[in-house]
Design a protein that fits this description.
four-stranded mixed β-sheet, Nucleoside Triphosphate Pyrophosphohydrolase, 5 helices, two-stranded antiparallel sheet, 6 strands, elongated, alpha+beta, about 200 residues
Length: about 200
């Protein structure tokens, strides 16, 4: 079978190269798997409390993270900020990427962020309830969600300009998570230059 395909490869390649762009697009769509990209994350307030939701279209008994699906033309940071504004009427500054994982049909990104504006008001179409929780007193939730919260607070991986170019929220927010990230970045600068940040030198 492989030998037959190898023999036909030059002919098939010639046909593909001469095909109009729209037909190439149809071919790529039909022959490749379809993946939905989801973005959610751990959203903190000034006291490092975690904002959790009960979602109408998920298991309403379990609490989860705010987020949604990536739209065409968006990056993951803009997507998360948009979902938070739409569902919670809050503005968020993105501080980092916690992790990502793939299933057969989805690619999921998990971010770390902090509330930097707005006033909490839920979208009743999608959200049943939204509340802040101390890390020591988390409500019932999935094991993976709980592990993400722990991982975010133990190892807050900073992403430079995470909010995207020209965005007002690109400056890292304050609080213990943001401070730890800034201190780690300063240590990295010292390891390269041999001097503390701001001392100059060649």
């Amino acid at each position: 079978m492989t030998g037959r395909l190898s023999g036909m490869a030059p002919l098939l390649a010639g046909i593909y190269r001469r095909a109009p762009q729209w037909l190439r697009g149809v071919f790529s769509w039909v022959t490749n798997g379809k993946v939905i990209v989801g973005v959610s994350g751990v959203l903190l307030d000034e006291a490092d409390q975690v904002l959790l939701l009960r979602h109408r279209f998920h298991d309403g008994r379990a609490w989860g993270l705010p987020g949604g699906w990536l739209s065409p033309g968006e990056d993951i940071f803009a997507c998360w900020r948009r979902e938070i504004r739409e569902e919670l009427a809050l503005d968020a500054a993105v501080e980092g990427i916690i992790c990502h994982r793939a299933t057969r049909r989805t690619l999921e990104f998990y971010l770390l962020g902090r509330i930097c504006g707005g006033q909490l008001k839920i979208d009743p179409v999608e959200i049943l309830e939204a509340r802040f929780f101390c890390v020591e007193e988390l409500p019932p939730m999935g094991r993976y969600t709980a592990s993400l919260i722990g991982r975010a607070l133990r190892n807050p991986a900073r992403v430079d300009a995470a909010s995207g170019p020209g965005e007002p929220n690109s400056k890292p927010a304050g609080g213990s998570v943001g401070m730890a990230a800034a201190e780690r970045k300063d240590a990295e600068l010292r390891s390269v230059s041999g001097k503390p940040k701001g001392e100059g030198g060649a």
